[in-house]
Amino acid sequence: MLLHSLIVIGFGHGIGFIIFFDVFAIPHLFTNGIEINFNSNYEDRVMDVAVFSAVGKILLILGLLFKQKNYKIVLNLIGLSLLLFSVCYLTYGNWSYSSLFGISFSFSIPFLIYSLLFLATILVEIKK
Q1: For residues 33 and 100, what is the distance between their CA atoms, to the nearest angstrom?
Q2: At what angle do helices 69-91 and 99-127 cross, to 10 degrees?
Q3: How far apart are CA 58 and CA 54, in angstroms?
Q4: What is residue 20's three-state secondary structure?
Q5: Side-chain half-sphere of 41: how many Cα atoms within 13 Å?
Q6: What is the pTM of this model?
Q7: Do residues 99 and 66 touch, judged by C-beta distance below 8 A?
Q8: Do the beta carbons of residue 15 and residue 98 sit within 8 Å?
Q9: Cα 87 from chain centroid?
Q10: For residue range 8-21, what is the model confidence (pLDDT) as tens digits?
């Protein structure tokens, strides 16, 4: 969750870490809803990405609290899937048009590596 929180995103005339946008994600969800459009501008996607990020992190935290193995695995898989989707949704676009896609992707590489290791850990737990 920490590596995902440190992904740099551009918004307006500055940059920030995704953890700052997670705070505003839930109120945005209730007021504006979610609109997934891979053809929209980078800046238009940021709040939707923050919603997926916040929900994914909440599910991973809930997965830590559950003792039962099945609930823990399901929450971890859904939470990790939402975090991976948020990275894909944020970095999908014309990289030659806007460098923000590439910048966000380069800062998401540590998270992507760790998420694959975490996924492998989850799959080992499923086989037990």
Answers
A1: 24
A2: 160
A3: 6
A4: helix
A5: 5
A6: 0.83
A7: no
A8: no
A9: 5
A10: 666 655 566 677 67
